[in-house]
Amino acid sequence: MRSDWIRPSPVLAPYVDRVWSWEGTPDELPVLLPGTGAELVVQHGAPMVACTSSGTRELPAAHLLCMRRSRWRLSAAGPVRFTAVRFRAGALPHFTSVPVAAVMDDAVAAVDVFGVAGRRLAGEIRPADPLDVRARTVEALLTPLMGRSGADRLVEVAVRRTYYDAASVRVNRLGPDLGLSVRHLRRGFLATVGVPPKEFQRLARFQRSIRALLNPVRASCLPVALAAGYFDQSHFIKEFHHFTGQPPARMLGGPVSHFYYPSTSGAADA
Question: pTM for this structure?
Fold first, then answer.
């Protein structure tokens, strides 16, 4: 398995964590665990197939993989290679007017989310090009899309606080602290990340716990669980089983392939 990444330009950096690439064999593909992120993926090798609770489907050549509330299994008929854009939490509405809730738990063709730019992605991002060249192509297609939606800046602040500090943020204080009503905050979260604040916090807490357990060196569950804001280890095990269908000891007991990487901004993201 080989992977590489590059920082986005200063223009995109507030909204994009990285442009990255991955290539490997089908048996190296990870289970996609529930998470808050949004990834724009352009495939260059054998098409990936996702097995989800709603069925099995081949993923489009260029697709947006958005927030997931259940795990997905990936497979392919041959070597896999792709280039991807990792959006920061809550950043997607800056690039599309398609409601985030409409693309959750799905892999939607890029053209259906980004229009003409999405259609051009598969043809203009060439796998033979160095990653920095592919990144410039991505940025040339995405930058003109910025600012097409009316993203709520205060809601974005609330999303970032919840994501980066899921362990200690008190959701019932987010609105008052920012001068937002409970109704406005809930509506803003649904528009920005697709779920209400409490559910987003729950997903963010789980995702960041898993990242700590998998990357770069395995840690024991209890300290990670407590640092993430779980009451105790049994609380974490219950949540882990809810999101993955199995206890952490079974899933984390051996080598686990994953797409988790440290953020380019110094804090885990996406």
Answer: 0.89
